[in-house]
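Supplementary Methods S3. Complex input for the flavin mononucleotide-bound model.
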Amino acid sequence: MPFADLRDFISALERSGDLVRIGQEVDWDLEVGAISRRVFEQGGPALLFERIKDYPNGYAILNGPVGTWRRVAIALDLDPNSSVREIYAAYTERRERKIPQATVSSAPCQEEVMVGPDVDLYRLPAPMVHDGDGGRYIGTWDVVITKDPETGWTNWGMYRFMTHTRNMLVGWPQATSQLALMMKNQFLPHNRAMPIAIAIGCDPLCHMVATDPFKPGESEVEYAGGLRGAAVGLVSCKTHDLMVPAHAEIVIEGEVLPDRIALEGPFGEYPGYRSGTMGEGVLVQVTAVAHRRRPILTLSTLGIPPDDSSIAASLTAATAMKRGLMRRGVPVKEVYVPPEGVTHLVVVSVERGGRQVAQQVLDFFTARRVMVSKVVVVDRDVDAFDMAQVIHAFATKCHPGKGMIVQHYEGRGNALTPCYSAEERRKLNGASVVFDATWPEEWAEEAIPVKASFATTYPESVQEKVRKNWRSYGLGGKA
Ligand SMILES: Cc1cc2nc3c(=O)[nH]c(=O)nc-3n(C[C@H](O)[C@H](O)[C@H](O)COP(=O)(O)O)c2cc1C
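Predicted complex, serialized as structure tokens:
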């Protein structure tokens, strides 16, 4: 059953024991963030903060909607104990169903509206998430909506936004993001402001889709519908014609100014470090704020994994990478993005290995914007989802002198790669390396070392006997 809205999802999390309500008053200034971060680091539940200092009762914050694989499984209406492989498979399959949106004329997200001079962002309980952040972040788990005026294509993306003044926001879309590209190509040349809407507190799958790297022209709302198994209801904004999820808790409407910027950040970011000093961010003049009565602000207190970013991006990035590798003719079997590697590390298993295939994999990863710096390629007999097997293959099969291929690039690297120097980050220069942990293709079969495992070093008859007698030996575990 699709979740009608965030509140429906919260109830499901509560039923399965994956959410804790905190009724005691907490301070938006660091306390909410500190509790949330500690709970993430313990692999704990989603948290619903119901009493925020300085705010009316019922103005709530939800931290960590999909910060564990269990919560992602629940969002997808799967068994909460589903394996990561099962979750990846369900996401991949359902994503292709695509259900067009439904337009509605009135919406819960517009129960209360502030327009023009009445806009006051401080009436919403945006937290000071981490000590050292540049300000209060209202957009940490959002769906940011913009439209290309030429093609009519609407982009959904997840980008951080900080409250700048009572009616201005400042954000940090990476230069290679669709939001930044749309502004640069379609609005800046005409010195025009770009309409924008920031939806906060939607059904979890709408947010998931916003983190998924779709191509221009692809309708993210249709993919979200497919994943939910029901159309996403959209309503028109109050001050421009962008369409937003009607069930959102909060919608901030505005326009990105073409002729002004403001300082943004730092922010405790998804790689697990505070981003650098304040940088130039895009400035949004807010034209309206609409919200449900007793709104719930979704939050992700990003940092050391696991959290929503490392878990959600593991899913959406890996499935997108697998599709891309397949399109390029790479003999890919599986792609796994371990959350601990915060999308900077990717594992690719291939049907057939060798240096040529490793090079093909690297070519894919460095073709356009480059967010990944390390890729491990393993043979098909290695379970890409099992990091113990991946480390074993890497340690034993990657030749220290010949097994690494490095590629440097300029102007399209990931500014949030901690090991890059400040200059590299500023210029978006970087490098990616592929670790080839497959057997060289030119090795004859008899030259390939035989794995000393139960499955590979015992005759089938012995294996069968051992499996059959497993319990009678008095052994537990898998028979
Ligand atoms: C919690 C979270 C926060 C994010 N914040 C930003 C951000 O501030 N700027 C950015 O460029 N990408 C950010 N991303 C990554 C983008 O959401 C992701 O690259 C997505 O594909 C962007 O959409 P686009 O491909 O349409 O640009 C964030 C992802 C997550 C999961």
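The chain has two domains: 6-299, 328-447. Residues 266 and 276 are 6 Å apart (CA to CA).
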